Amino acid sequence: MKYFLLVATFLFNASYAQDEWFFNRMMRKERDKVVDQIKSDGVRDFFKASSDFIKIDMTGDGIEEFFRVEMVDGLYYVRILDFKRNDVGRFKFLTKGHSARVYRVLRKSLAKNITITLFYFFEGKTGYLDRYNTGAIYSYVVKDNDFKKAKFQRLSPLWLEKKDFNMGTYKRLYKVGSNDLNGDGISEVIVSHRGIRRIYSYDQKTSSMYGTNL
Predict the structure, then answer these.
(1) What range does the domain containing 100 cover?
(2) pLDDT of res. 128
């Protein structure tokens, strides 16, 4: 199974990046040597495939951590390791149909001590003559270089495609950007389509992103 992934550093107020590079990885059944060091999460895996581990600085301290995408019994997860290759956790994507995949990863500093990694995930194809396909953006936010304060969340749909056998095809694509809208020193994540904008702000008390419509 071929696996295409784009990893980038998210440096400005759009979903584009200056430093982008493609990773072409083969999902495979055999276990990686790094995985043998990972503690069990209590889930019995009947069929498991995974990409290679990819380096990315998720904490903003200049030291790269590791992540990889795993497929377990038809569901997709991201596995994260710290820079010492200790297991941080395995986090689940919402999988709705076949051909689901992570196709892009962006990293951005929301503040001096807060770093967000955005995972673009195609949630899978559903139906044949009539279908409803969606992509969504997931966030992994780390504060104070402390993974105990990190949280993984599904934020918002990124695009949708609805095909009706009688009505034809309907598509909507959202743009992703960021800006410090309230001047508090912490940037918000902005997901927009034409006149529709959803703003995601970071709550320092709960370490969560919460959304509001604007």
Answers:
(1) 2-39+46-162
(2) 61
